[in-house]
């Protein structure tokens, strides 16, 4: 198989990122609505199983057989493990935290991406961006603090999700030419299905009923459909954005996601962020804008 050629296009990458920002709050709200009735591994399994089915059909019909296997495959398998763990932690965090607070903590992800892009991808990150990274992390810690007092270690789930997804995004950038986008996503989906199945088996053997499977009702099936189909869209948008655009350009725009999350949190869950959450989130957003400004000046 000839190596896939990836051409950088920051304009398209930014548009894909905005598409992700507009779509993902609907998925977050659906996950939170399911939080009391269904364990995060079951939500993750349903989501990724649909991804496997849809992507399998697409790959079989539209891609030549020589492109079905990534070259190399191991980075995509590792990325699949990281993305699966990240998704599981996102769902666990949304199930126990207010929507806006969980998203605000998850905003550590762009901070992690910007910081690690310097170390792992050798992208240039100057002193001003490092200062912005530290300020953004401080803002995220302001949000984590009171939530940690209320729910304990559950407040750490969005932070772990940010780490796993940040590493996953960097791997998508570094090994962007390993396969075409549908194959790229298929590896993540099949890895997640295997991991969630292992969790169910482990829970059954040990008697850990917090991961037990439940039969969804009609409304829950609708929410699962929103999560599954919406996630296909958001994954494709964000993965392609990171494949064709430097990570440090995309990262700051992800902060705009809090606008949609705040709207969803208010109208669906009657939740408004506390003053400390607002202040912490503002620090993170300002840090992201500072990073973007420095990046734009260096282009």
Summarize, please.
Helix content is 78%, strand content 0%.
Class computed from helices, strands and strand pairing = mainly alpha
> Which residues form runs of ≥5 with pLDDT under 50?
none
Approximately how much beta-strand content do the residues carry?
under 5%
The global form is globular
Query: What is the number of helices?
Result: 12
What's the β-strand tally? 0
- Averaged pLDDT, please? 83
Helix content: over 70%
The radius of gyration is 19 Å
Order of helices and strands: HHHHHHHHHHHH
Total number of distinct structural domains: 1
Largest sheet: none
The end-to-end distance, rounded to whole angstroms, is 34 Å
Please describe what this structure looks like.
- It is globular and about 45 Å long.
- With 299 residues, it is an all-alpha fold.
- The protein contains 12 helices and no strands.
- α4 (99-106) packs parallel to α12 (275-298), α5 (108-120) packs across α6 (127-151) and α5 runs antiparallel to α10.
- The chain has helices at residues 10-34, 40-62, 74-96, 99-106, 108-120, 127-151, 157-174, 181-206, 218-244, 247-253, 257-269, 275-298.
- The two termini are 34 Å apart.
- The chain has one domain (10-298).
- It is 78% helix and 0% strand.
Please tag this protein with its features.
299 residues, mainly alpha, 78% helix, globular
Strand and helix map with partners:
Layout: H1 10-34, H2 40-62, H3 74-96, H4 99-106, H5 108-120, H6 127-151, H7 157-174, H8 181-206, H9 218-244, H10 247-253, H11 257-269, H12 275-298
Helix pairs in contact: 1-3, 1-9, 1-11, 2-3, 2-8, 2-9, 3-7, 3-8, 4-6, 4-7, 4-11, 4-12, 5-6, 5-7, 5-10, 6-12, 7-9, 10-12
């Amino acid at each position: 198989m000839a190596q896939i050629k990836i051409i950088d296009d920051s304009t398209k990458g930014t548009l894909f990122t905005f598409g992700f920002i507009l779509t993902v709050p609907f998925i977050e709200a659906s996950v939170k609505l399911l939080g009391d009735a269904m364990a995060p591994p079951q939500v993750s399994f349903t989501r990724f199983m649909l991804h496997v089915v849809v992507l399998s059909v697409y790959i079989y019909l539209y891609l030549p057989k020589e492109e079905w296997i990534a070259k190399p495959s191991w980075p995509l398998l590792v990325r699949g493990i990281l993305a699966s763990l990240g998704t599981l932690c996102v769902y666990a965090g949304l199930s126990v935290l207010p929507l806006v607070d969980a998203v605000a903590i998850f905003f550590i992800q762009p901070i992690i991406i910007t910081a690690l892009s310097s170390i792992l991808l050798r992208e240039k990150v100057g002193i001003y961006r490092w200062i912005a990274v530290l300020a953004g992390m401080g803002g995220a810690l302001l949000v984590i603090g009171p939530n940690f007092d209320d729910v304990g270690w559950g407040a750490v789930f969005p932070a772990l999700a940010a780490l796993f997804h940040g590493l996953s995004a960097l791997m998508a950038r570094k090994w962007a030419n390993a396969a075409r986008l549908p194959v790229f996503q298929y590896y993540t989906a099949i890895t997640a299905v295997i991991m969630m199945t292992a969790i169910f088996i482990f829970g059954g053997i040990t008697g850990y009923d917090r991961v037990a499977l439940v039969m969804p009702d009609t409304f829950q099936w609708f929410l699962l459909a929103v999560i599954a189909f919406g996630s296909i869209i958001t994954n494709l948008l964000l993965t392609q954005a990171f494949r064709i655009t430097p990570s440090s350009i995309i990262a700051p725009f992800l902060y705009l996601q809090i606008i949609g999350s705040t709207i969803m949190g208010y109208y669906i869950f009657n939740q408004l962020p506390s003053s400390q959450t607002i202040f912490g989130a503002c620090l993170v957003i300002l840090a992201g804008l500072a990073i973007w400004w420095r990046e734009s000046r260096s282009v």
